[in-house]
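Appendix B, record 7
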Amino acid sequence: MALRLRLTAGRQWRAADVPPVIRHWRLAVVTAYTASGVAFSSWVTRLPAMREDLGLSPGGVGLLLLCMTLASFVSVSASGLIVIRLGSARTIRAGAALLGVGLVLMGTGASLFRSPLVTAIGFAVIGLGTASWNTASNVEGAALERALGRFIMPALHGSFSIGTVAGAALGAWAAAAALPLAWHLGVAGTVVAAAVVGTAAFLRADTHSAGVPVGAGDEGAAHDAVRPGGRAQVAAAWRDRRTVLLGLMVLGLALAEGAAGDWVAIALADGYGVSHTTGAIGYTVFVTAMAAGRFLGTPVLNRHGRVTSLRACGAFAILGLGLFVFAPSLWLAFAGLALWGIGASLGFPVGMSAAADDPVHAAARVSVVSTIGYGAFLCGPPLLGFVAELTGVRYSLLVVLAFVAGSVALAAQAAPRSVAEIRA
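C-alpha cells (predicted):
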C-alpha cells in the first residue's frame, strides 16, 4: 500500500516472535529516548526558579540558552563523524555522562554559588552531550525500525515525550516544594546517566549480530555509517536535495517543540500572571499532549500517510500557537497548549523515518536530517529570547508559527519513496 511506510527488512516480526536480542535492543533505545526527555524537562521546568536565583532578565535567560546553543552546534555539526568514529552506542554513553555532569553544574551554579558563569558552563556541557547523543539515538531508532520491519519511530519519540512528562511532573513538584536546584538537578543528572550507560550494552546498530534481521542482502548492514566510505556517505547526504528539504521541514516542527520547552513556563508566568508551579503544569499539559500524539501516530500514519498526517499536525500547531498567544483567559491558553502539543508530535519522528527510506544510506541521511532539525533546538530559544525583549515572551512565539507554516509547505517531501526513486 502506497501510504504505508516502506521498510526493507527481510522479515516483519510479530510481537510474540521477536528474538530476545531485539527486545533488549528496543529496551535500550527506549531508555535512551526516555532518559533524554527526563533530563530535558527537569531543567526546563525550573527555568523560572533559575532566573530568580540568578536575577536574570529574559535576555539573560536567552544568553544562558545561547551557551547551550553554541556547544550544541559544535556537537551536532560533528555528530555524523562522531558516530562514525565511536559508533552510536559509545556516543550515547558519552553523551549521557556529559549531560549528567552538566545538570549537576547547572543546579549548583544557580542555587549554591549563584553564579551565572558556572550555570552557563553547565548549559554548555549539556549542549555538548545532548546533540550527539540524540543524533546517535535516531541512528539506533532507524536501524531498529528496519530490524523489526514496522513503523515504530513515533513510539520511540513518544518515549522521549513520556520522559518529558515524568520530568515535568517532578519539576512541578520540586517547584511547589521550593526544592533547591542543586538537589533536584543533581539527582536527575545522576539517575539519567546511570540508566543510559547501564543499558547501552544492548544497542545493536553498530554490529552485525547473528540472527538480528536488520535488512536483506547488501542492505543488511546494521549501521552503514561505520562501514568503509561512511564519511563519503555523510558528505553525499548533505548534497541530497530531498534529505536537506526533509531537514528543513523537520526544523519548523521541531522549533514548535523546542520553543515550548524553553519558554512556555515563563510565558505563562509573565503573560498570564500565574505562579511558577502553574507554569510548570502548563508545560506538563503540552508534553502530555505531544506524547499522546506520538503514540497515536502509528495508526494515523498507516491510515492517512505521512504527508496528510504532517499537514494535519501543522494545522493543529498553528491553531494551538495562535490560541496560546491571543487567548483572553488561562483555560483557553491551556487548550492552546494541548493543540500545540499534538501539532508538534509527529514532525521529528516522521522526518527520521522518511530519511531512512533507503536502508543503505539511512544512517548518513538520518544524521543530516537530525542535524538540521536540531538547529531549531539550538538557535530557536536564544532567538526567541532576544525577540521577547522587544515583544514579550508570549508574542515572540508568533515567530514559531511562521516556521510551522513553512514546514507544512514542505510536507510533500516526506512521501514514501522506493529505493530506486531515492537513489535516482
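Remarks on this record: The chain has one domain: 17-207+218-423. DSSP finds 18 helices and no strands in the chain.
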